Amino acid sequence: MGKLSGIKVIDLSLFLPGPMLSMMMADHGAEVIKVEPPAGDPARQMEPMEAGQSVWFRNLNRGKQAEALDLKSDTGRERLWDLLADADVMIEGFRPGVMKRLGFDYEAVAARNPAIVYCSISAFGQEGEMAHHPAHDLAVQALSGFLSVNDGTDGMPVVPGVPSADMAAGLNGLSAVLMALIGREKTGKGDYVDIAMFDSMLPWCAHIAGGAISGGPPPVSQSQRSLGGAAFYQVYRTADDRHVVLGAREVKFAKNLLTALDRLDLLPLAELEAGPPQAPLIAFLRETFASRTRDEWVKWFADKDVAFSPVLDFREALDQDFVKEKGLLVEADGAHQIGPSFAFRSEDPWQVTDSPELPE
Asked: Phi and psi for 74 in degrees, rounded to 5?
């Protein structure tokens, strides 16, 4: 019995934010019915495949049921109404206006089921001048300012490795849905929540864009302590063209490392402002790390209290012993899944669940 046992979720969303939201609910006991178009969620076709299914699809849709409905047909709409009759949550990720045209906007659904918690996920929200602007994660990151600091030393922004706007929207949506369910316990009535990827992402800039938030200039990566201007929050190339990082700026860690390197005279530089003042220290560390291979540095740092890590690729990251120890990567029936990121002490350990095939 998971924390969300007894909660029924109807999820019409595709791809990433909505499916992630509903999968996290399914992982903790919710009954999730994934409503897909007759052709299925496009993520079903995304390579690579393993054990007959897309790895992407499986890792975002496990533990759900699936139904294929043509919502432009009377039969499809009638079936969706049947599913919504006793549902607790509805999730949709269509472009604004689509659900109203189909007859399943919040007002229509709540008229039949006042207890429903209805969550819409879109790039910029359901209303306003940007509501109908098409955008996926990259465009949202660009418009929210984040892409400007996802740059190299040459100042050129690069495509992010993490779809942060998508993930932020999924997590924001989950938080809002759970809050609405708690509120419903007091009032008996559901609610509507409009989740925008842009709005979800923006609060993540508080620690890097303080100047801009307060009306001043935007951050410049190479002069910002968290974005590339600090010696002890920095990426360094090693002798074998791999990389390592120093990942904490506390003076105690700088002192520990510089003592071990017999360069304690450089410690005052670590306490200066990020950017040009720390350039000599960054230059010294670049030369130092270039003198050994990545794995040689891993061994060298093993007995030192310094916030150091090698930069791993995903194969290396997933093969680490503690990943298996924590149950973060599991294999069952020839298929691999990333396990839930949290668990409750009072509940039995999570068990691997299947992702649904699309019914004929």
From this structure: -60, -40
* 11, 88, 166, 191: the active-site residue: 166
Superfamily covering domain 222-311: formyl-coa transferase, domain 3 (3.30.1540.10)
How many residues does this entry show for the chain?
360
For 8-204+329-338, CATH gives 3.40.50.10540
d(CA 95, CA 255): 53
Compute how many other C-beta atoms are within 10 angstroms of the C-beta atom of residue 160.
15
| Band of pLDDT at residue 138, cut at 50, 70 and 90 | very high
pTM of this prediction exceeds 0.70: yes
Tell me if residue 74 is catalytic. no
* Cβ neighbours around 95 below 10 Å, total: 13
Question: In angstroms, rounded to a whole number, what is the distance separating the alpha carbons of residues 96 and 104?
Answer: 12
* Residue 222 near residue 215 (C-beta atoms within 8 A): no
Alpha-carbon span 185 to 269, nearest angstrom: 56
The neighbouring-strand residues paired with 36 are 68
Angle at which helices 17-27 and 164-187 cross, to 10°? 50
Position 249 pLDDT exceeds 90 = no
> How far from 228 is each of 217, 293, 307, 343, CA to CA, in Å?
17, 22, 16, 35
For tokens 């691999």, the residue is 336
User: Kind of pairing, strands 233-237 and 8-11?
Assistant: unpaired
pLDDT at 153: 87
